[in-house]
UniProtKB/TrEMBL annotation:
Presence of the UniProt keyword Ligase in the record: yes
Function: ATP-dependent carboxylate-amine ligase which exhibits weak glutamate--cysteine ligase activity.
One GO BP: modified amino acid biosynthetic process
Protein name: Putative glutamate--cysteine ligase 2
Protein EC: 6.3.2.2
Gene3D superfamilies, per database record: 3.30.590.20
Pfam family, one: GCS2
């Protein structure tokens, strides 16, 4: 099966941000995404997502993080205006802490219906939201070496954005319970460690022959090629609860892809970092469980370091790239998260202080509004 890749001449950026709708009285999710989209006048692309409670904001092709965030800010502003007229609030987080999946209908798309029919219980659990960053790549042969390198920084991309400690009324003990939930789908989770575009094409042949693609439409991997757009799509991060933290995650992701792309050109594939598959799996779990307090494996010799220390070093490494692409301030907002704490920590602290998830929902909705 030939996998088309419409290569990007430049390392362009596109961002998809999933937002949910909240009833201000019950603080539960409400399935009014279609109503909200119909009521919103905006220049940014809005899409209905898997659940009827979710709206996805999609930027155009951007040069850098400030341009993408400016589009998203305007989109959220327009959505906020329409949401107020409908009597709902916007919510951004990795998961909702107490909503019942049985009360949240799936959007009326054949593709989504197929997923639910096939995956049943686990498919119905997907009350989760993320942010997806597309970064342009100049040739298909560069895609998988860069993806493999990005996977070594999985904890770095997840921990600052982690915002889903609550589930079914419980504090799960995880920073990102969304990460653990999403990987239950048969086509989701970590990408295979492929070495070339030809191996990807062979992989997709197998998925087609076995009927997997027929059921799901695509592979919902944590990081994947997006051949139609000529990008690598990074889907690791929870949906941040405000535009400041979103800016940090987007800048980090964009700069990291560019850095590895250039390293590949300058020094070849051997210069890119790699980890054994079992180390990647362990690092993903540690980041989901412990967030910014994760001790992660940093090399093939199984040395370890604190993800916070790694993030400080990574920001320093990427600073020249950020300066070139006009996102130095946004990249350094990663350091602000390290100092001030991530969304999962704020949510957990509010729960411990009040004994209720309702103030957590209120706080998270207020964070989004305040970041405008």
């Amino acid at each position: 099966m030939t996998q088309q890749f419409n290569a990007s001449a430049k390392p362009t950026l596109g961002v998809e941000w999933e937002l949910a709708l909240i009833d201000p009285q019950s603080r539960d999710l409400v399935p009014r995404a279609a109503d909200l989209i119909n009521a919103t006048t905006t220049d940014i692309q809005l899409e209905r997502e898997f659940l009827q409670n979710t709206v996805e904001l999609v930027t155009g092709v951007c040069y850098n993080t400030p341009e993408a965030i400016a589009q998203l800010r305007q989109g959220v502003h327009d959505l906020q205006t329409a949401a107020a007229s409908l009597g709902v609030k916007l919510w951004s987080s990795g998961s909702h802490p107490f909503s019942d999946f049985r009360e949240n209908p799936v959007s009326e798309k054949g593709h989504y219906t197929e997923i639910i029919e096939r995956t049943r219980y686990w498919g119905n659990q997907m009350l989760i939201w993320g942010v997806h960053c597309h970064v342009g790549v100049s040739h298909q042969d560069r895609v998988w070496p860069i993806i493999n390198a990005l996977m070594t920084k999985y904890p770095h991309l997840l921990a600052p954005s982690a915002s889903s400690p609550g589930w079914d009324g419980l504090d799960t003990g995880y920073a990102s319970n969304r990460t653990m939930l999403y990987q239950q789908l048969p086509t989701a989770g970590m990408p295979p460690q492929l070495r070339s575009w030809q191996e990807w094409e062979s992989y997709m042949v197998d998925q087609s022959r076995s009927g997997v693609i027929n059921h799901t439409g695509s592979m919902h991997l944590d990081i994947r090629p997006a051949g139609k757009w000529g990008t690598i799509e990074v889907r690791v991060s929870d949906a941040p609860s405000n535009l400041h933290e979103l800016s940090a995650v987007v800048a980090l992701t964009h700069c990291l892809v560019i850095y590895y792309d250039r390293l590949l050109s300058e020094e070849g594939p051997a210069a890119l970092p790699s980890l054994q598959p079992w180390h990647l799996t362990e690092n993903k779990w540690r980041a989901a469980r412990y967030g910014l307090d994760a001790l992660i494996i940093t090399d093939r010799a199984t040395n370890e370091a604190w993800v916070k220390d790694e993030l400080y070093s990574l920001v320093e490494l990427l600073e020249p790239t950020a300066k070139e692409f006009g996102c130095t301030q946004e990249l350094h907002q990663v350091e602000e998260i390290l100092v001030q704490g991530a969304a999962y920590q704020r949510q957990r602290e509010m729960l411990q202080e009040t004994g209720s998830w309702l103030p957590v929902v209120d706080m998270t909705c207020a964070e989004l509004l305040a970041s405008m």
